[in-house]
Design goal:
The chain is an alpha/beta fold. The protein has one domain: Ribonuclease H-like superfamily/Ribonuclease H (Nucleotidyltransferase, domain 5), CATH 3.30.420.10. Helices cover 54% and strands 22% of the residues. The chain contains 5 helices and 5 strands; from the N terminus they run βββαβαβααα. A 5-stranded mixed beta sheet has the order 3-2-1-4-5, sandwiched between helices. Strand 2 and strand 3 form a beta hairpin. It starts with a strand and ends with a helix.
Length: 168
């Protein structure tokens, strides 16, 4: 499975593409989509949409993963990031892709094993998991989904097996 993790922001939206083959995570690409502050918001959002569509067409992920917005952020920041996330979701929907989102705590739990982990600890673990010298942040979201997806499938399989045993 290939996941596209996106860390939405109006100025610098980071993305990471990670593929899981067996038990191995492979970094395929990462980058930043930049928009200039002197351009009107609707044109910045269009640029974001076009860039996300380009990444989707190039790498063909099965899922797009976003970080849930924190209610503790300033309202104007939440609004702007929400607009960017909406554009990303539209790009994913137009490409018939599933969209998932995770809280920062879920990302930390999935990658490090503790929802209380520091950002530095998460970055170090991402470096280890992907065999990198530097850590691109959006890969965290993609890795979180791939690990969570695997666990969800395991839980579903175990629940099915249990229900089959009970029926007998």
């Amino acid at each position: 499975m290939t996941a596209l993790g996106i860390n939405a922001s109006i100025a610098n939206t980071g993305y990471g593409i990670v593929t899981e083959e067996g038990s191995t995570l492979i970094k395929r690409d990462f980058g930043v989509i930049r928009t200039a502050p002197d351009i009107p918001i609707h044109l910045r959002l269009k640029k974001m949409y076009d860039a996300v569509i380009e990444v989707i067409h190039e790498y063909r992920p099965e899922v797009v993963v976003l970080k849930e917005l924190s209610p503790n952020r300033k309202f104007s920041n939440v609004l702007t990031v929400g607009q960017v996330q909406g554009v990303v979701m539209l790009a994913a929907a137009n490409a018939d892709l599933d969209v998932r989102s995770y809280t920062p705590s879920q990302v930390k739990q999935s990658i490090v094993g503790s929802s209380k982990s520091s950002g530095h600890q998460v970055q170090q673990m991402v470096k280890v998991l992907l065999g990198l010298k530097e850590t691109p942040k959006p890969d965290q979201l993609a890795i979180c989904h791939l690990r969570s997806y695997k666990m969800q499938n395991l839980y579903q399989r175990l629940a099915f097996e249990r229900s089959e045993r009970i029926r007998r």
